[in-house]
Structures are given as C-alpha cells and as structure tokens.
Amino acid sequence: MRRLAALLLLLWAAPAAAQDPRLIADVSQSRVDIEYSFAGAELLIFGAIQYPGGREPETAPDIVVIVRGPPQPITIRRKEKVLGIWMNVDAVRFETAPGFYAVATSAPSTRLTDERTASIYELGLDHLQLSPASGNPPAEIREFEEGLLDLRRRGGLYKEVAGGVDIVEKVLYRARVALPSDVPVGKYTAEIYLVRDGEVQARAAREIEIGKSGFERAVFVAAQDHELSYGLFAVALALISGWAASALVRRS
C-alpha cells in the first residue's frame, strides 16, 4: 500500500507539460534469494500511467511486461539415427539467449504492434534476437531457434501470457510473473512498455537480482572463484563416499 500511495503521489505531483504518457513502475522484490528449499517465486510488477495534462484517453492503452534473465550462450544440437546409433549431426550456437524470458500483455501480442516494432523491442518470443553464431542456412537456423524456444517453454523458462496484465481505471497496471525453481542466477530486468495505436509511447525498467544464499552461495562462489580446488575436492569427496559405501556393504 505504501508503494502504491507513493506512485499515486508522483502521478499527481508530476508536471503537466509533458507531451507523451509516462510510466511509473516498481517490482515487489528487487532481490530473490535461492536456498536449498527454493521452490520458485512470484514477482509482482505494478505501476501507474501518467497522461499528458492528466487527461485520460477514451480507451485504455495496452501494456507489455517483460521479465528477462541474464543472456547466456547455448549450443543446440540435433540428433539423428546413424547406422542404428543416435548421434549429434548438426548444431547451432546462440550467443545471447536469455536464461529466462517471460512476457505478459494486456491483449494478444499480434494485435499490439507490427512486426518491425515488435522486433525492435523484442515484444514476444517470436521476436527474440538470439544472435546465432553459426554459419548455417537461415531456414536451418530458424528450425534450431524453434527447438530452443520449445525446450525452454517446456522447462518453464520461457513463457508468454496474453491477458496477463491487468489495467485498472486506465491508470494502474499490474502483472504477476512466476519464477521456476531452476531459474538461473544473475541480473534480471523487468521491462514495461506502453503501446497505443501500434506504437511504443513510453517505457520503464527495473532491475532484479536473483542469487544464491546460505550454503548454496558458498558452494557457488567456491566453484566460480576456485575452480581447480573445487574440482579436486569434489573428486576426493566422491572417492571417499564410494569407499565408505563399499566398506559398509562388506561389513553387512
């Protein structure tokens, strides 16, 4: 309630001379901690629309909310049966695939903008710029892109929800985005776009940090900062565990 009151105060106090609408945005959590019992989380993205001169339009504009995770390179491989054995026969590497991507819209994305505008702002899964690094033919690259999107959709890391943004009295908006339990750590952005007559008229963004905490963070930091020592320790621990299990079996 305090955040909502602050947003309304900003809306009232803002100068009326602006010619374009303005988005005021906030998120329910600017940091999400992942612990051993982490089973996922839900982000609330909310805010208000400030209209020029305080005059509301006859019809409410549309809102697109995108929560985007850290970009990461990924190689997608295709397997085929060769002489009765499943083998990797083709591969495409993408340099900037987001680790998480969720988009919620107040209306179906096909009704919001044209293809060019949607591609510029990456409004929707079909308009993600994945930066393929391989020299494969365009048709083959598109086939691998669809495979990547399908894999991450099924894993809950990519999602698109038409009607996932509620607009109240043409001024207030809100959207809920679910984070799965295996969401990657890193810096995220919540991007909010105001769309009217096929054009993006305003935008806002907020940063979100998703990181490990407690014992998980200690292990994660050790693996990142001391790779050799961590690897040797992991091998030694596996050998000791195997020897201990074998000894217990022999005694029983």
TrEMBL record:
Residue intervals passing through the bilayer: 228-249
InterPro entries, A to Z: CHP02186-rel_TM
Top-level taxon of origin: Bacteria
Keyword annotations: Membrane, Signal, Transmembrane, Transmembrane helix
Signal peptide positions (record): 1-18
Entries under Pfam families matching the protein: Alph_Pro_TM
Protein name per its UniProtKB record: TIGR02186 family protein
Organism encoding this protein: Sphingoaurantiacus capsulatus
